[in-house]
Amino acid sequence: MIKIKASTLTEVIVALVIISLVTGMFFTIIIKVGNYNRNRKYLLLNQQLLELVQEAKQYGYLDDETLDYEGYYIQKKVKPFKEIPGVWEITAEAFTTQNKKLMEHKAIIEYQILETE
């Protein structure tokens, strides 16, 4: 008859702790990589909203518009602010394709529209 050497309880617990730590670190890395890609998309989308508002401030693009951006769509709305001449409220919103609002930026700008003859 062959005897098999048994492990002590301490050895088994140490082995399980090591396996748990390695597995936990592996899943943490995978989750962070997934979050990074999602957060990167949101940062780029946020930057696009800010650029729309900035273009309206600098160049006077005061028209409502809807843009498609990497699977999302952005809607810019411009309206007069409290009936004050030359002051405009700009709202830029980002939506998913399922029409779920992700983020929004609002700005109030002063921009005089000159009448040409």
Secondary-structure topology with pairs:
Blueprint: H1 9-59, E1 65-69, E2 72-80, E3 87-95, E4 101-110
Antiparallel strand pairs: 1-2, 2-3, 3-4
Biggest sheet layout: 4 strands, antiparallel
Mean pLDDT score, rounded?
A: 81
Q: Characterize the overall form.
A: rod-shaped
Percent helix: 40-55%
Radius of gyration: 28 Å
Tally of helical segments:
1
Strand order of the largest sheet: 1-2-3-4
Structural class: alpha+beta
Total E-strand runs: 4
Strand content: 25-35%
Order of helices and strands: HEEEE
Give the termini separation: 110 Å
Number of domains: 1
Low-confidence stretches are none
Notable traits:
alpha+beta
Structural account:
- The protein is an alpha+beta fold and 117 residues long.
- It has one domain (9-110).
- Helix content is 44%, strand content 28%.
- It contains one helix and four strands; from the N terminus they run H-E-E-E-E.
- It has one helix at residues 9-59, and strands at residues 65-69, 72-80, 87-95, 101-110.
- The protein has a four-stranded antiparallel β-sheet, covered by helices on one side.
- The longest helix has 51 residues, at 9-59.
- The N and C termini lie far apart (110 Å).
- The model has no long low-confidence stretch (mean pLDDT 81).
